[in-house]
Amino acid sequence: MPAPGTPLEKLGFLTIGLFDPTDPRAGHESTLDVIALGEQLGFDSAYLRHRHLQFGISSPIAVLAAATQRTSRIELGTAVIPLGWENPLRLAEDLATVDLLSGGRLNPGVSVGPPMRWDDVKQSLYPDTADVEDFSYERVERLLRFVRGEQAGPARGRQGIEEWSDRVEPHSPGLRHRLWYGGGSTRSAKWAGEHGMNFLTSSVVTAEDSTDFAAIQAAQIRAFRAASPAGEAARVSQGLVVIPTDSATDEQRARYAAYVESRAPRVGTPQGPGRLLFAPDLLGTSEQIAEALYAHAGFREVREVVFALPFSFEHEDYVQILTDIATRLGPALGWRPAGQ
């Protein structure tokens, strides 16, 4: 999006889906209601975050399976599934099943690397194979092969009373083109492009040559497209945290400001051994947020976004934020709700 006046093509949102551990169903129902609201408001996509051993969504594919039966149009995605927790063959089965149930609306995002808190979970997750598990890009390549329908086993045809397939079943032919890689480094961006995946960027990048978040993100997007066979047409989605306050109450505005302030100290300074760099949360009126986005070098490189909803807010807060994004911020960026 090079300048104001160029319409944003696709507008989505991302939620972590929190719940009370003493009553987890209510939180999952809230997430499903938020997705349904997103469809009603005309959003193009709704994505779920992925959390293990926390009070968020640990099984986004299961939740999205339910969402397929409550929606009919909105695209449904994950941002992202950490493949270190997954068996690629079993995941390919689940993804294809949910994609077919959705009518071809699933957009799975994945990433690689060891699971978070690896030393704490490896004996529970891989008690016999922890020392030999491969958490490299090869794990994504296995998933891509299975989703494409390449051979998963030698057996095919009838054996006794059983019918066997040599590929993952069910097979969803269009799913391969809707797979995303979530990355924050130039290496990941290039790898995703070279392997024909779509690319998810977020509010976190690796501080490689500078601490200018927007410039780093823009450079990674350009590196992805340069490596992709699709070139400039390759799909990239940006996922900054935006909190419009147009219709918020005074009490909500105060809480939102406190939330942003609590996260501000990590902005601008690389964090940890991975030198992670966090983007500032964008808080204000839709007009103010649109102005900030048009000044953002990363945003100017994309044609679609999946704005991240803040953590730990109430259901009513998400309704207000999504409504303002769809009815005020989106139009300020030239976006039109689906169906209009």
Q: Can you describe this structure?
A:
By secondary structure, this protein is of the alpha/beta class. It has two domains: 45-154 and 164-182, Alpha-Beta Barrel (TIM Barrel), CATH 3.20.20; 187-335, Luciferase-like domain (TIM Barrel, Alpha-Beta Barrel). The chain is built from ten helices and 14 strands. The chain has helices at residues 24-41, 60-68, 88-102, 118-125, 138-148, 186-194, 213-227, 250-263, 286-294, 315-332; strands spanning 10-15, 45-48, 75-82, 106-111, 157-159, 162-164, 180-182, 198-200, 204-206, 236-238, 242-244, 276-278, 282-284, 304-308. The strands form four sheets. An eight-stranded parallel barrel has the order 1-2-3-4-7-8-10-14, surrounded by five helices. Strands 5-6 form a two-stranded antiparallel ribbon. Helix 1 (24-41) crosses helix 2, helix 1 runs parallel beside helix 10 and helix 2 (60-68) packs parallel to helix 3 (88-102). It is globular, with a radius of gyration of 20 Å.
Search tags:
10 helices, 340 residues, globular, 2 domains, alpha/beta, TIM Barrel
Which class of secondary structure composition applies to the elements? alpha/beta
What is the ordering of alpha helices and beta strands?
A: EHEHEHEHHEEEHEEHEEHEEHEH
Overall helicity: 25-40%
Biggest sheet features: 8 strands, parallel, barrel
What is the overall silhouette?
Answer: globular
The CATH topology of the largest domain comes to: TIM Barrel
CATH architecture of the largest domain: Alpha-Beta Barrel
Number of strands: 14
